[in-house]
Design goal:
With 101 residues, the protein is an all-alpha fold. 90% of the residues lie in helices and 0% in strands. Helix 1 runs antiparallel to helix 2, helix 2 packs antiparallel against helix 3 and helix 3 packs antiparallel against helix 4. It is globular, with a radius of gyration of 13 Å. The mean pLDDT is 94.
Length: 101
């Protein structure tokens, strides 16, 4: 079974969490998706780069989610979500790339 890169898991958690919340009108449901993807990504980060890296990337994931809210006031909701998701994917890739080459 092919494994999905942790960068893609993290980015899709941010995008999917927002999309689910927006389209269903149920913010807690979006939060469940966000948390599930974050937990899956954290497990991968732990395996790929160790505990300290996983903790740092986990903090970055939460910061990306929180940061998307004020950024949305400047860029709009979807552009803000795509911006933080891209940043999170890049951070994940940068931290874990040496172990995946």
């Amino acid at each position: 079974m092919a494994r999905i890169p942790s960068a893609a898991v993290a980015a899709s958690g941010l995008i999917g969490g927002y999309g689910i919340a927006r389209w269903t009108g149920k913010r807690p449901l979006g939060g469940v998706a966000l948390a599930a993807a974050g937990a899956a990504a954290a497990r991968q980060w732990q395996r790929e780069a160790g505990g300290r890296a996983a903790a740092g990337l986990g903090a970055a994931y939460v910061a990306a989610f929180a940061g998307s809210h004020p950024l949305a006031k400047k860029l709009g909701a979807w552009p803000a979500v795509f911006t933080v998701a891209g940043g999170m994917a890049l951070a994940s890739w940068a931290v874990t790339r040496s172990n995946s080459l």
